[in-house]
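Q: I'm teaching a short session on how sequence maps to structure, and I want students to see two examples side by side rather than one. Could you give me a first protein with its sequence written out and its structure tokens following it? Keep the formatting plain so it prints cleanly on a handout.
A: Of course. Example one:
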Amino acid sequence: MESRTIDGVERRACMSEACGAIHWGNYSIGVGALVRRDGKILLVRRAQEPGKGNWTIPGGYIEQLEPIGETVVREVVEETGVQSRVVGIVALRDQPRGVHNVYIAFEMEYIEGEPVPDGVEVDAAGFYSLEEQRSMPVAGFTEWLIDASLNKKSDGMRKDERQASPGSANEFYRL
């Protein structure tokens, strides 16, 4: 590998032109689930850093070959045992830093299940009203996401079942 200017940015690239490998950067994509039932929102209490002891919405990071809609459903099940399905995208946070993080918050439809914490990533889980949340240490970003969900000015981006590339694993969302 060597350093080269590619597209106006200093990047690491394979020294052999035949190889063609370019390191485009370090990125992570996180997801969060806003699951509502009976006017309450599903929250989990973080059992690990970052944010240990704070209440957040369930979420995590996508796996390399995992569709993002499957990621958010999986994360809710793993952390709480609750079954849900993607309705749409409510909010997005872009956090440029050493590992550039993009976080996508999904509106989810509750299907079934009572919240049970996984005992590893989260040590408590439940559906809580806004009034109940006032006495809980809810993470600031989670408060912002809940506000974005409850006070949205549109239906947000909805999953489009009409695929631009039929048969692909791609997922498409539109306003």
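Q: Perfect. Now a second example for contrast.
A: Example two:
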Amino acid sequence: MRSAPYEPATVSGGDTEPGTLDEQQRRAHALELSAATTFRLHERLLGARPRIEAHFGMALGEPEPPQFLTYGPGGFQVPHRDVGDSPAGYRRSISAVLFVNDQAEESDGDRYSGGSLVLYGLLGPASIQHGIPVGGRSGQLVAFQSNVLHEVKAVEDGQRHTAVAWYPPGDEPG
């Protein structure tokens, strides 16, 4: 991911047009990985679908093609939900984040510091003000309902590499 071509990651939803660059909402880079890498990850996401369906008790469709993101020092994403006014937002039931590298107290060539994924409201409506931080571990897949409020805290040092994908609702379990 370090050598992949990239461009600033965009945002959409609410009053924001899809593909809008807004570094007040998200500061990250969207990477272009090879078709073979994207296909292999898509296949793995398909393979994980039955376990995710069982966990959430819902049928899911085939996931959207994964997006690859890197957050450098100061990179973040404000609290948001992955559902909303965009056509893609209505088709998202489960969001999935795959951590490519480890979070650590201090960064080094492979690890990053800061940059926690924070999920809000997991303990019911009264807990919407209290986020649960998830530290990244290489190979860890975190799946959550797409209507869950979440954010990426600012990366303090190093590069936070992730792949993200969304599962739409399905008619019957995969």
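Q: What should students look for in example two?
A: Point them to this: The first strand starts at residue 6 and ends at 8. Also worth mentioning: The chain has one domain: 6-167.
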